[in-house]
Design a protein that fits this description.
Shape: elongated
Strand content: under 5%
Keywords: Ribonucleoprotein, Ribosomal protein, RNA-binding, rRNA-binding
Pfam family, one: Ribosomal_S20p
Number of helices: 3
Distance between the termini: 58 Å
Number of domains: 1
CATH architecture: Up-down Bundle
Protein name: Small ribosomal subunit protein bS20
CATH topology: Methane Monooxygenase Hydroxylase, Chain G, domain 1
Largest sheet: none
Structural class: mainly alpha
Function: Binds directly to 16S ribosomal RNA.
GO molecular function: small ribosomal subunit rRNA binding; structural constituent of ribosome
């Protein structure tokens, strides 16, 4: 329980930021899952299209400080590796 006005505000602001961050992370994970589903179904063209969208969402999450830059790099690298293996 917050004892001061500023502590109450911090709780409110933190809750708002957390929900916003959760939606961005959820969108990012959904786009990553979409790429992996296309790879599983052996549809290279669709996988490449969804890869572009997934990379944009990963980069946006990294720019906003929701995920670390190394984490973003690792996610992009693994997705690109899967799509490239499918293409070759």
């Amino acid at each position: 329980m917050a004892n001061s006005k500023s502590a109450t505000k911090r709780i409110r602001v933190n809750n708002e930021k957390r929900t916003g961050n959760q939606t961005i992370k959820s969108d990012m994970r959904s786009s990553m899952r979409e790429v992996e589903n296309h790879v599983r179904n052996n549809s290279a063209d669709e996988a490449k299209e969804s890869l572009v969208k997934a990379v944009k969402k990963i980069d946006k999450a990294q720019q906003r400080g929701i995920i670390h830059k190394n984490n973003a790099s690792r996610k992009k690298r693994t997705l690109m590796k899967k799509v490239n293996e499918l293409s070759s």
